[in-house]
Amino acid sequence: MAETKKYITKEDLEKHNNPGDLWISIQGKIYNVTDWSKDHPGGVSPLLHLAGQDVTDAFVAYHPGTAWQYLDKFFTGYHLKDYSVSETSKDYRRLVAEFSKLGFEKKGHIAFITLVSMVMLLALSVYGVLCSNSTWVHLISGGLMGFMWIQSGWIGHDSGHYQVMMSRRFNRLAQILSGNCLAGISIAWWKWNHNTHHIACNSLDFDPDLQHMPFFAVSSKFFSSITSYFYERKMNFDCAARFLVSYQHLTFYPVMCFARINLFAQSISLLLSKRRVANRGQEILGVLVFWIWYPFLVSCLPNWGERVMFVAASFSVTRIQHVQFCLNHFSSSVYLGLLIANDWFENQTKGTLDITCSSWMDWFHGGLQFQMEHHLFPRLPRVKLRKVSPFVRELCKKHNLPYDSASFWNANELTFKTLRAAALQARDLSNPIPKNLVWEAVNTHG
């Protein structure tokens, strides 16, 4: 006699969405991932954000085909009642399967090329500091250090999304070397931050990549002092924040010169916190290596003027990368609350802007100029993103979804306008600081 399936409703599933009770649905089957969440390679944040929903599209996006075999041990025996799949999701899953079948997940030589370029840039920078007495050479060496950090960011980003090396052990080594040792940024912090960004793309209260109060606010909704669920604190829109935000369109590029300091601070804060950090010892040791070699190299310069100049040059060059991170999302649609997992494709397209450029610029942009493609297919190596772009554009057209793209300069203009619009609203001193979201919604200008 065939076993009768047991069903639960969507409303019942939604109740299992807290740290001690995490249930998810994949293709209509219900899984309890509560105990396993602490061992999840992507961290607990993605599971917390998507718990209580059907997460099939997110699972397909982030996991290789081999991951399906491990699901059965988490199966509760329940199925989701009235489970259905939208036409958009069907097409999206079909694309994922097709790309996998065509071998688009093969890495190629991009990691090797990036690592070689990093070694060359680092060697030239060190050589310029140690073997030249020219102030101009020292200035150029600082710039080369900045370009090395940009490339280390790309290899750290790629190795965090998929395996760029031949084995997991070497992939981990690439992460620690490129992130912690050479750039001073904890790969553990980056994974925690970046995975949350992908899952909650452009959510004002969940996406850390939009939460830059008191310096920047991309939406007047921040004026209601909303709570950051990533940082677990209230982002107060007080008098100081109002003043800084009022001029944010003018201070944006100068502040980006020092954005790296924030990454250093965030990394150290996480590693010294009580939060669970995988391989904490490795992470701390890697960051310590950076804080030994980089200050020592700077100290080899002949005077304090040139030391400040070297550091300023290295930080200013990496500003390009920090600006690009903002261009992809600052001028796109934003929302409050969690992502609705069933609208995975729709949400990723609405909150993302591609940067159009020639193929010879791919090395410079690290593949993230195809931000929409990267968000939809995060496991694809960057060298494949240009190839899949036409398929994404066609799918967006078919389902009447936005495929927003702009040149690098136009994207900067859009970001400037977004920041200026919010700045002018913040500068309207005739209005008091909003007390709640209802007040803000009624009184928002523009």
TrEMBL record:
Keywords: Heme, Iron, Lipid metabolism, Membrane, Metal-binding, Oxidoreductase, Transmembrane, Transmembrane helix. Its main location: membrane. One of its GO terms (biological process) is lipid metabolic process. It is found in: Membrane. The chain crosses the membrane at residues 110-130, 136-155, 176-192, 252-272, 284-304. InterPro entries: Cyt_B5-like_heme/steroid-bd, Cyt_B5-like_heme/steroid_sf, FA_desaturase_dom, Fatty_acid_desaturase. This is Desaturase/cytochrome b5 protein.
